Structures are given as structure tokens and as C-alpha cells.
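ok so I'm stuck.
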Amino acid sequence: MKVPENLWYPVLESRELGRKPLGVERFGQRLVLWRTADKTPHAHLDRCPHLGTALSGGKVQEDQIICPFHGFAFDGAGQCRHIPAVGRSGKIPNGMALTNFMLQEQHGFIWLWWGAYQEEYPDVPYFEELSPVWRYGTDVLEWSVYTPALLKTNWMLPIWHTCIALR
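replied:
not stuck anymore, here's the structure
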């Protein structure tokens, strides 16, 4: 998925993100977002650099996101701070870090910078003149679906398309 780069994008409403890691897909990438105790949001690729486990299945402890597989601990900047197998004083290999994304929390949203690292980032796009009148909302719908029926329908779909296309 090609997305214009070097721009701010709203990726979540602020209220959606707590201390528990949250896995989302944005821009064709699986991301994990989480907060430190001071409520600062952080975002990384949802993949531990050790064996690729989804960090969104882990937990936040002492302002570090913990991989659910081997317990590697990463700080908000994505640096590995602890590997249980090597102990507290063990050497952490170079390159054992997460891909980190710049975030800003403004106007009720968490904004992600999609693009190259900048010495200074532009302001988050926002129209102050809309502030007193602009409203937004989110609706979430959950559908109960009987899985075998769903699989059958989705499996049959290409067959029906083939019949119509080959007339």
C-alpha cells in the first residue's frame, strides 16, 4: 500500500489507547501502540526483532513493552533493555531494537508521522476555526457470524465469479 509520506496521520482516537499494548493495521503494516505510566503513547512495528512474535500479545511493565514469547523488554524509543536469558548485566546485541514511529497526541487523536526521521516535525494539521463547531464520533458494530457458513460462502465466491466470467 503506497501512502504519501512525510505527513501526520491520525491513527487512533486518544481514548482507544491504554497501557495494554494494542495491535492495529495502518498503512499496510501491523503496528503496536502502548502508553508509558506518564500516558505518553508509543508506536512500533508489531514484531519482536528476536523471532517475530507480535508484541501486541505482550504486556507493559515498568514503562517497557514485554515480548510475550521470550520476555525481551523494549523501552518507548524501541531499544532493547532486557533479555531474560542473558540476565540483568548481560550484553544486549547491537541491532536488537524495534522500528519506532514518531507520535503526537492532539485534538483527541494519536497522530503518527509516516515518513523519514526529521530534526523538526511540522505541526499536526488542524483547523482551529473548526474547533468550536466540529464534532466526530465512532460507531463500532460487532456481528456474530457462524464460521463454517462464512467459510463456505467465501470459498464458493470465486467459483460463482468464474461461472459468470466464462459465459
